[in-house]
Amino acid sequence: EQEETDQELGIRSLRFKNGVTVHLKSMDSRKDQVLAQLTLAGGEIQETADNRGITNAAASVLNQPASARLSSIDIRDLMTGVNVKVGGNAGRDAVTVRIGGSTKDLETGLQLTYLILTGGRLESSAMELWRQLQLQAITERKSNLHENLFDGFRELLYGGDPRVKPLAAEQVKAISLESAQAWLDGLLGAAPLEAAGANRAEDDLIGR
Fold first, then answer.
1. Over the stretch 182-192, which tens digit does the pLDDT of each residue have?
2. What is the pLDDT of residues 82-140, one digit of tens each?
3. Distance from C-alpha of 201 to C-alpha of 112, rounded to nearest angstrom
4. Backbone angles phi, psi at 28, to 5 degrees
5. What gap in Å lies between CA 206 and CA 32, rounded to an integer?
6. Is 90 exceeded by the pLDDT of residue 178?
7. Distance between start and end Cα atoms, the chain
8. DSSP-assigned letter for residue 109
């Protein structure tokens, strides 16, 4: 384990032998609240024209978490009354998981995060919702002048790179539950992980 501190910013960084990097900052405000963010490198930047959008589809597990043993309904029932939220999204070069809520419920939030990272399972209902939302966005985009102008600019700027092109309806429909799950498994199993947390009780966050 290696540790260093940026005195000016008050950020403490730890690098563990397993490759995980953690950044922590002590906060005086909202002392009973904790904010944590986990970043898994990769994802969209690894896509091709053939599987464009698959990272975004796989990341839907972050907002409807499930595992081989627990359905999303089971997890929702278990989280009832717990003052912590877990969610996230896919970006250009990383998938981000966010944990926020009460310090006393942090452990429950971290347990759910661990469940997702070690055995997250995409449900067919999550995939169908993702597909419907993407197709709706594509339809709305066609009549949006600003978005069409931006698409032209992006095409010019990135030289037609398929990884930055807007999703097409055909690409959305081509992503199956099985292929998205396989992509998720590969991402969770191989992506470098970096964590950041803001909380008064730094050592408590590390310990948990």
1. 999 999 998 88
2. 999 999 999 989 999 999 889 889 889 989 999 999 999 999 999 999 999 999 999 98
3. 20
4. -85, -30
5. 16
6. yes
7. 17
8. H
